[in-house]
Amino acid sequence: MTEPTILAIESSCDETSAAVIRGGEVLSNIIATQAVHEKYGGVVPELASRAHQQNIIPVVTEALNKANVTKNELSAVAFTRGPGLLGALLVGSSFAKSLALGLNIPLIDVNHMQAHILAHFIDDPKPNFPFLCLTVSGGHTQIVLVKSHLDMEVIGQTTDDAVGEAFDKTAKMLGLPYPGGPMLDKAAAQGNPKAFEFPVGNMPGYDYSFSGIKTSVLYFLRDRTKENPDFVQENINDICASVQHTLIKTLLKKVVQATKDLGIKEVAIAGGVSANSGLRAALQDYAKRYSWNVYIPAFQYCTDNAGMIAMAAHYQYLAGDFADQYASPDPRMKI
Ligand code: KG4
Ligand code: ZN
Predict the structure, then answer these.
(1) CA 291 to ligand 2 centroid distance, Å
(2) Of 91, 153, 177, 248, which one's alpha carbon is 20 to 30 angstroms from that of 7?
(3) Contact residues of ligand 1, CB 6 A cut-off
(4) What are the CA-CA distances from residue 51 to residues 91, 124, 163, 187, 208 (Å)?
(5) CATH for 5-117+302-318 (3.30.420.40, 3.30.499.10, 3.40.250.10, 3.30.360.10)
(6) pLDDT (tens digit, 9 = 90+) per residue, 281-329?
């Protein structure tokens, strides 16, 4: 009972992933990234569902094998209930439900955004409660007050685009290949972050707005390429560095405010954009400047993975928080 062995499945977007956790230790974390979306420059929901269907059995098999665990040793099966793409979520949830039913073991439904935060409990050092987590992904931008493993409160969020979207759309406008965020990050490392200035909308409290920067980059590129058709080619690194710098400064400004208002010095980042090298470096700088303890997940636990779903499932199992067999996906699930 104290050492539950759980199989967790993640299928909310374009990674099919399965992980096995035993007594809170992640034994395996297998991720199949769907290359099929590359030529479309973004995730195509219908193709994502189909790829999940193709990947799920091999990925689950590999996760069990790598963990050296058989199906009969499982205490529960966990799945991402939301938020995410409905068709993609359906593949993981249907698989998990059937397996749990077949093995006659409990089912655990996990919130993907909560799981991104709980990825911090996979490796050491682990944050101390309460802490603030800046959760930044392709679909979300949130400042979350984390009071315990399962008690979290969103205190600020984007009112329009997610910051990952701002990275991806800027990259697309610059002609960088999909997935845009990591490509922009790479180019930014070679550029001057102060080369250009882009205005960002200022929202009240801890909220954000990232839709404006897309438009300002669009107009900026239109005007500059009118003067010089090779402008983008000649300045790509500086443009990337400047946009990235603006996004990071905007993100961290609200985090600084929240730490001051709430008197919290434990600060974590989570979600796909926490893989961004500029954000990781900036957080370390802020840690020195404001005497924060900062927590940055290992790369494999930044972007979507079932290891984090397994970690959330572990705490839910201990709390007796199980789903019924009719738990359907919730594409707009909130923390
Ligand atoms: O958490 P995630 O894997 O999926 C969602 O739940 O959305 O996050 C994906 C997002 C994408 O927008 C991707 O471009 C962004 O994370 N991302 C990055 C980097 N790596 C992933 N953005 C900026 N720099 C990176 N290195
Ligand atoms: Zn995610």
Answers:
(1) 29
(2) 153
(3) 13, 137-139, 164, 167-168, 179-182, 185, 271-273, 275-276, 303-304
(4) 10, 33, 26, 30, 33
(5) 3.30.420.40
(6) 999 999 999 999 999 999 999 999 999 999 999 999 999 999 998 899 9
